[in-house]
Amino acid sequence: MIRSLFFLLLGVFALLRTAVGHNVKLEAQGRECFFEDLRAGDTMTVSYQVGDSDASASSGSGGIDFWVNDPRNSAVKVEKDVQHGEFTFVASHNGRYTYCFSNEAAGYVSKEIGFNVHGVVYVDASETPEDPLEHEIKTLSQLLEQVKDELEYIMIRERVHRNTAESTNSRVKWWSIFQIGVVAGSGVFQVYFLKRFFEVKSAV
């Protein structure tokens, strides 16, 4: 019984592509492309989150461009100037599907991109007998993948917000130092000016 359950689990997980989390640094004017070999009917999901790789960079300095091309090099999805997103599609042809992240439009700020890729291999229902236990395990596996993706998304969002907070704190600090310098300089100037104004000048 245990052995048959073990092989059943192996069979179900073989049907599912494991969710894979990646982090990549996209330099200014840079582009990174990745690919997956799919069969017609396979489902693929790409979710991503963009953040500035440098905490001192200005928050809201623009997003990246994202697109997916099919094996015929036709665009399946194109998004411009985005900070995060998720795209799911069903492969219509056998072959290599390419998805790219581009920082070419942003200009001068490097970006850090965290993304997940996962999918489900298409299996004809007529070829696989329906088993309640197999169905429940498959559903549980999909839910676990969604939880994992959500946790990775939250971690990336936390890093983006932390960078924004550090950038804001740094600007507030330097602005405060500048204000103190201006006030101190103004005080010294006023003391010096008033001292000279009240000086008694005697003619020789």
Automatic annotation (TrEMBL):
Extent of the signal sequence: 1-21
Transmembrane segments: none
Matching InterPro entries: Emp24-like, GOLD_dom, GOLD_dom_sf
The keyword DNA repair is assigned to this record: no
Keywords: Membrane, Signal, Transmembrane, Transmembrane helix
Membrane topology qualifier: Single-pass membrane protein; Single-pass type I membrane protein
Keyword Membrane attributed: yes
GOLD domain boundaries: 31-119
Localization per record: Endomembrane system; Membrane
Stated family: Belongs to the EMP24/GP25L family.
PANTHER family per UniProt: TRANSMEMBRANE EMP24 DOMAIN-CONTAINING PROTEIN
Entry protein name: Emp24/gp25L/p24 family/GOLD-domain-containing protein
Species whose genome carries this gene: Myxozyma melibiosi
